[in-house]
From TrEMBL:
GO MF annotation: an example: O-phospho-L-serine:2-oxoglutarate aminotransferase activity
Cofactor(s) listed: pyridoxal 5'-phosphate
EC number: 2.6.1.52
Alphabetized UniProt keyword annotations: Amino-acid biosynthesis, Aminotransferase, Cytoplasm, Pyridoxal phosphate, Pyridoxine biosynthesis, Serine biosynthesis, Transferase
Quaternary structure and partners: Homodimer.
Pathway in which the depicted protein is active: Cofactor biosynthesis; pyridoxine 5'-phosphate biosynthesis; pyridoxine 5'-phosphate from D-erythrose 4-phosphate: step 3/5; Amino-acid biosynthesis; L-serine biosynthesis; L-serine from 3-phospho-D-glycerate: step 2/3
Similarity section: Belongs to the class-V pyridoxal-phosphate-dependent aminotransferase family. SerC subfamily.
Enzyme category, top tier: transferase
Start and end residues of each Aminotransferase class V domain: 5-348
Protein name: Phosphoserine aminotransferase
Subcellular location(s) of the protein: Cytoplasm
Length: 360
């Protein structure tokens, strides 16, 4: 068996140790004679797995008891509607910052429930630099301020946390959660689809300040009410048990690596060397403002896009998978989440340099 280097944006590569442990436990979890997938979510065994995963996530991110941690389904996309349904709390306005494709999707969905004010936008600069704090036009009466700390497709990332005063700050952390240290106390709500830095697709993590719960828009389905999930410890129905279990293994793996602080150091190095290689060449380019370059998703173009197909084919032959950019933007994109080792980035850089020598 040869595992290749996987630069997929999501579902993304998982730590090999985690997959090996899941494989080893697959048929017979801890001598119980059945797999974790085949157990009742209400069994003592599964409840202990679920509680441990939550505790480990709390430890890793420093989440205080003022917050509920929910393990849901429906992807980050369902959160685009659950957020207004739950956080409007009688208000009719919410502030959103637009920095690209994912913020726009969140805005479009929220507009079905409330008046959305665009508090800031990077559209004017072609989504290559995020609006600064001074440029934001914040409404002190807004129900919340929503932003996308990392635009997975554009590769555009905030270098600051917006200051929203008493207005709860809501962040789509799908592609950057656990990649570096973060002060959770600054947020009203954080959400993330699991399939990048947490575990397999099918699980969505929501971290929400408890005092924001309990007042939903009329007609909100039960399954879209955070308080229902919070009161039932995310078990008001059958939760995504396998995803939850695997996320727990990833959290243990993260702790063994030295936690989020160690990830931050590794991710800092990985992105710095990849952008440095791109900048050192006239053959490759990344247009983002340097301060807003994403650590997790590194899009780049070749000087001649007629070479794109050959680049991807030869990369694949060299064991470097999933480097094709998102279908909406083209070019290349290397997603270098926590589970992508530094050796993968080194291999990509030497492949890029060789390819350039042959084709420049
Ligand atoms: N937000 C961001 C920033 C994303 O990267 C993605 C998925 N790529 C989504 C939302 C949508 O997530 P899901 O597919 O889990 O609904």
């Amino acid at each position: 068996m040869t595992r290749k280097f996987n630069f997929s944006a999501g579902p993304a590569g998982l730590p090999e140790e985690v997959l090996a442990q899941a494989q080893q436990e697959l048929l017979d979890w801890h001598g119980k004679g059945l797999s974790i997938m085949e157990m009742s979510h209400r069994s003592d065994e599964f409840v202990s797995v679920a509680e441990q995963a939550e505790q480990d996530l709390r430890d890793l991110m420093g989440i205080s008891s003022a917050y509920k941690v929910l393990f849901l389904q429906g992807g980050a996309t369902s959160q685009f509607s659950m957020i207004p349904m739950n956080l409007l709390r009688g208000k009719t306005n919410a502030d959103y910052i637009n920095t690209g494709i994912w913020s726009k999707k969140a805005i479009k969905e929220a507009a079905r429930y409330c008046d959305v004010s665009i508090a800031g936008s990077s559209e004017g600069n072609g989504n290559i630099a995020v609006p600064t704090q001074a440029e934001l036009k914040l409404n002190p009466d807004a129900a919340y301020l929503h932003y996308t700390p990392n635009e997975t497709i554009g590769g555009l990332e905030y270098d600051y946390i917006p200051e929203s005063g008493d207005v709860p700050l809501v962040a789509d952390l799908s592609s950057t959660i656990l990649s570096r240290q973060l002060d959770v106390d600054k947020f009203g709500l954080i959400y993330a689809g699991a399939q990048k830095n947490i575990g397999p697709a099918g699980l969505t993590v929501v971290i929400v300040r408890e005092d924001l719960l309990g007042s939903v828009v009329a007609g909100t389905p039960t399954m879209f009410d955070y308080k229902v999930h919070a009161d039932a410890d995310s078990m008001c129905n059958t939760p995504p048990t396998f995803g939850w279990y695997l996320a727990g293994l990833v959290f243990k793996w993260l702790k063994a690596q030295g936690g989020v602080a160690a990830m931050e150091k590794a991710n800092q190095r990985k992105q710095a060397k990849l952008y440095a290689a791109i900048d050192a060449s006239d053959f490759y380019a990344n247009p983002m403002a340097v301060a807003n370059r994403s650590w997790m998703n590194v899009p780049f173009t070749l000087a001649d896009d007629a070479l794109d197909a050959l680049f991807l084919q030869q990369a694949e032959e060299a064991g470097l998978l999933n480097l094709q950019g998102h279908r909406s933007v083209g070019g290349m994109r290397a997603s270098i989440y926590n589970a992508v080792p530094e050796a993968a980035v080194d291999a990509l850089i030497s492949f890029m340099q060789q390819f350039e020598k042959q084709h420049a």
